[in-house]
Specification:
single chain, mainly beta, SH3 type barrels, 2 domains, 5-stranded antiparallel beta sheet, 47% strand
């Protein structure tokens, strides 16, 4: 097959642009802002309630439909949440059974607290591989990004 030089340049440029674009697109994240928010099977208040989510629960947005968002949680459960009950406030959820909270972003720092699977933590800062979090009691510290899910 003969490729015209101009067409070959176009194909290379298009492939490069698509590669760069797809790697730079980050998943949209939201968190729940109501005291408890229902995750439903379909985008309707009449639909089956799948889960009741606490304030701050982080969710990945999969799709938007009217005033509803289809979301996925850290366990890959999917459902629909009423969009006005979500926020852009960043949170993480602990996915490890037990996770150390440290005074700084690294294993050389002292452990000051522990968190358990399912604990919600307010995200305060990020550093490569680490996230600074705040527990519900106000305790702040750093956790390995590998132990939590969120943004």
């Amino acid at each position: 097959m003969t490729v015209i030089p101009c067409a070959r340049t176009f194909l290379i440029a298009t492939s490069f642009a698509l590669t760069c674009f797809s790697s730079s697109v980050a998943a949209e994240m939201v968190s729940t802002k109501g005291n408890t928010v229902n995750m439903r099977a379909k985008p309707s208040t009449q639909s089956e309630r799948l889960w009741e989510l606490d304030r701050g629960y982080p969710l990945r947005v999969l799709k938007r439909q009217g005033k509803w968002v289809q979301v996925q949680d850290f366990e890959n459960d999917r459902g629909w949440v009423y969009a006005p009950l979500t926020s852009r406030t960043p949170y993480h959820i602990v996915k490890a059974n037990v996770a150390n909270i440290r005074t700084g972003p690294g294993t050389k720092y002292r452990v000051i607290a522990r968190a358990s699977r399912g604990d919600l933590l307010r995200t305060k800062a990020k550093k490569t591989g680490w996230v600074k979090v705040e527990q519900s009691n106000g305790q702040m510290g750093w956790m390995s990004k590998k132990l939590v899910w969120g943004w």
